[in-house]
Amino acid sequence: MFTIDERYRGLPASRDQVLALHLSLNTPHVAIPGKQAGPAQAFVVGLRGGQSAGVFVYLYLVEAGDCAVYVSGRRIQSADELREDEDDALAFVESLGFMMDNANWRSAAPAQQDEWLKTLPVFFREPTLVPAVKARAEEKRNVATTLGRFLAAF
To answer: Cβ(123)–Cβ(113) under 8 Å?
Structure first.
Protein backbone atom coordinates (compact mmCIF):
# COMPACT_ATOMS: atom_id res chain seq x y z
CA MET A 1 0.00 0.00 0.00
CA PHE A 2 1.33 3.40 -0.98
CA THR A 3 1.07 6.38 1.38
CA ILE A 4 1.94 10.01 0.79
CA ASP A 5 5.31 11.08 2.23
CA GLU A 6 5.58 14.86 2.62
CA ARG A 7 9.37 14.68 3.08
CA TYR A 8 9.87 14.08 -0.63
CA ARG A 9 9.55 16.96 -3.14
CA GLY A 10 11.34 15.16 -5.97
CA LEU A 11 13.43 12.12 -6.71
CA PRO A 12 16.75 13.30 -8.14
CA ALA A 13 18.68 10.29 -9.36
CA SER A 14 21.55 9.27 -11.55
CA ARG A 15 21.11 7.06 -14.58
CA ASP A 16 22.50 4.05 -12.70
CA GLN A 17 20.06 4.45 -9.80
CA VAL A 18 16.92 4.21 -11.92
CA LEU A 19 15.62 0.65 -12.21
CA ALA A 20 12.24 1.31 -13.81
CA LEU A 21 10.21 4.22 -15.15
CA HIS A 22 6.55 4.36 -16.09
CA LEU A 23 4.94 7.55 -17.43
CA SER A 24 1.30 8.55 -17.62
CA LEU A 25 -0.17 9.01 -21.06
CA ASN A 26 -2.95 11.28 -19.81
CA THR A 27 -3.40 14.05 -17.23
CA PRO A 28 -6.58 13.33 -15.27
CA HIS A 29 -7.91 15.84 -12.75
CA VAL A 30 -6.94 14.66 -9.25
CA ALA A 31 -7.52 15.97 -5.74
CA ILE A 32 -4.72 15.25 -3.28
CA PRO A 33 -5.27 16.10 0.39
CA GLY A 34 -3.55 19.40 1.22
CA LYS A 35 -2.86 20.24 -2.43
CA GLN A 36 -4.66 22.29 -5.06
CA ALA A 37 -6.77 19.98 -7.25
CA GLY A 38 -6.01 19.94 -10.94
CA PRO A 39 -4.60 17.99 -13.84
CA ALA A 40 -1.67 15.77 -12.96
CA GLN A 41 0.99 13.59 -14.52
CA ALA A 42 1.97 10.32 -12.86
CA PHE A 43 5.34 8.65 -12.72
CA VAL A 44 6.18 5.27 -11.21
CA VAL A 45 9.89 5.03 -10.53
CA GLY A 46 12.00 2.21 -9.17
CA LEU A 47 15.20 3.52 -7.60
CA ARG A 48 18.27 1.77 -6.26
CA GLY A 49 19.82 3.22 -3.12
CA GLY A 50 22.54 1.58 -1.06
CA GLN A 51 21.88 -2.14 -0.75
CA SER A 52 18.16 -2.04 -1.45
CA ALA A 53 15.67 -0.38 -3.73
CA GLY A 54 12.27 1.27 -3.56
CA VAL A 55 9.33 2.06 -5.78
CA PHE A 56 7.85 5.56 -5.71
CA VAL A 57 4.71 7.09 -7.15
CA TYR A 58 5.22 10.73 -8.11
CA LEU A 59 2.19 12.85 -9.02
CA TYR A 60 3.05 16.16 -10.64
CA LEU A 61 0.31 18.80 -10.38
CA VAL A 62 0.83 20.60 -13.67
CA GLU A 63 -1.01 23.90 -13.03
CA ALA A 64 0.11 24.32 -9.42
CA GLY A 65 3.72 23.28 -10.08
CA ASP A 66 3.47 21.07 -7.01
CA CYS A 67 3.87 17.36 -6.39
CA ALA A 68 2.95 14.48 -4.13
CA VAL A 69 5.22 11.50 -3.60
CA TYR A 70 3.84 8.18 -2.43
CA VAL A 71 6.04 5.43 -1.02
CA SER A 72 5.40 1.81 -0.22
CA GLY A 73 7.68 1.81 2.80
CA ARG A 74 9.07 -1.58 1.84
CA ARG A 75 12.79 -2.14 1.23
CA ILE A 76 13.12 -4.21 -1.92
CA GLN A 77 15.77 -6.91 -1.89
CA SER A 78 15.01 -8.90 -5.06
CA ALA A 79 13.82 -8.48 -8.64
CA ASP A 80 10.57 -10.28 -7.76
CA GLU A 81 9.84 -7.80 -4.97
CA LEU A 82 10.57 -4.92 -7.37
CA ARG A 83 8.06 -6.30 -9.88
CA GLU A 84 5.47 -6.77 -7.11
CA ASP A 85 5.86 -3.17 -5.93
CA GLU A 86 5.78 -1.88 -9.52
CA ASP A 87 2.53 -3.77 -10.10
CA ASP A 88 1.07 -2.37 -6.86
CA ALA A 89 2.16 1.17 -7.83
CA LEU A 90 0.68 0.83 -11.32
CA ALA A 91 -2.60 -0.47 -9.87
CA PHE A 92 -2.63 2.50 -7.48
CA VAL A 93 -2.17 5.19 -10.17
CA GLU A 94 -4.52 3.44 -12.58
CA SER A 95 -7.18 3.50 -9.86
CA LEU A 96 -6.78 7.31 -9.91
CA GLY A 97 -7.53 7.40 -13.65
CA PHE A 98 -4.03 7.39 -15.12
CA MET A 99 -3.14 5.34 -18.18
CA MET A 100 0.48 4.29 -17.82
CA ASP A 101 3.21 3.40 -20.29
CA ASN A 102 6.45 1.57 -19.52
CA ALA A 103 9.40 3.71 -20.66
CA ASN A 104 11.61 0.58 -20.72
CA TRP A 105 14.37 2.42 -18.91
CA ARG A 106 16.89 -0.42 -19.10
CA SER A 107 16.65 -0.77 -22.87
CA ALA A 108 16.50 2.97 -23.61
CA ALA A 109 19.56 4.63 -25.12
CA PRO A 110 21.78 6.52 -22.64
CA ALA A 111 21.03 9.78 -24.48
CA GLN A 112 17.27 9.21 -23.98
CA GLN A 113 17.83 8.39 -20.30
CA ASP A 114 19.83 11.61 -19.85
CA GLU A 115 17.05 13.58 -21.56
CA TRP A 116 14.46 12.14 -19.15
CA LEU A 117 16.68 12.93 -16.16
CA LYS A 118 16.95 16.56 -17.30
CA THR A 119 13.33 17.17 -18.29
CA LEU A 120 10.89 15.00 -16.31
CA PRO A 121 9.59 16.69 -13.15
CA VAL A 122 10.02 13.52 -11.11
CA PHE A 123 13.82 13.82 -11.28
CA PHE A 124 14.01 17.43 -10.03
CA ARG A 125 14.76 18.11 -6.36
CA GLU A 126 11.86 20.58 -6.19
CA PRO A 127 8.87 20.88 -8.58
CA THR A 128 9.38 24.64 -8.88
CA LEU A 129 12.71 23.92 -10.58
CA VAL A 130 11.05 22.17 -13.54
CA PRO A 131 11.92 24.25 -16.64
CA ALA A 132 8.27 24.67 -17.72
CA VAL A 133 7.32 25.98 -14.25
CA LYS A 134 10.29 28.36 -14.19
CA ALA A 135 9.37 29.65 -17.67
CA ARG A 136 5.76 30.20 -16.59
CA ALA A 137 6.89 32.14 -13.47
CA GLU A 138 9.24 34.25 -15.59
CA GLU A 139 6.42 34.97 -18.05
CA LYS A 140 4.14 36.11 -15.21
CA ARG A 141 6.92 38.34 -13.87
CA ASN A 142 7.41 39.89 -17.35
CA VAL A 143 3.70 40.57 -17.72
CA ALA A 144 3.61 42.27 -14.32
CA THR A 145 6.71 44.33 -15.16
CA THR A 146 5.28 45.40 -18.50
CA LEU A 147 1.95 46.33 -16.92
CA GLY A 148 3.76 48.28 -14.17
CA ARG A 149 5.80 50.24 -16.72
CA PHE A 150 2.68 50.92 -18.77
CA LEU A 151 0.77 52.27 -15.76
CA ALA A 152 3.78 54.31 -14.58
CA ALA A 153 3.81 56.12 -17.93
CA PHE A 154 0.55 57.90 -17.00
So the answer is: no
Q: Per residue in 68-87, pLDDT tens? A: 999 987 888 888 999 999 99
Distances (CA, A) of 121 to 20, 58, 59: 16, 9, 9
d(CA 96, CA 71): 16
Which ranges of the chain would DSSP assign to H, the alpha helix?
Answer: 79-95, 110-119, 131-152
Q: How far is residue 60's CA from residue 24's CA, in Å, rounded to a whole number?
A: 10
Give the end-to-end CA distance of the chain in Å, rounded to a whole number: 60
| CA contacts within 13 A on the Cβ side of 7 | 4
Rounded to whole angstroms, how far apart are CA atoms 151 and 124? 38
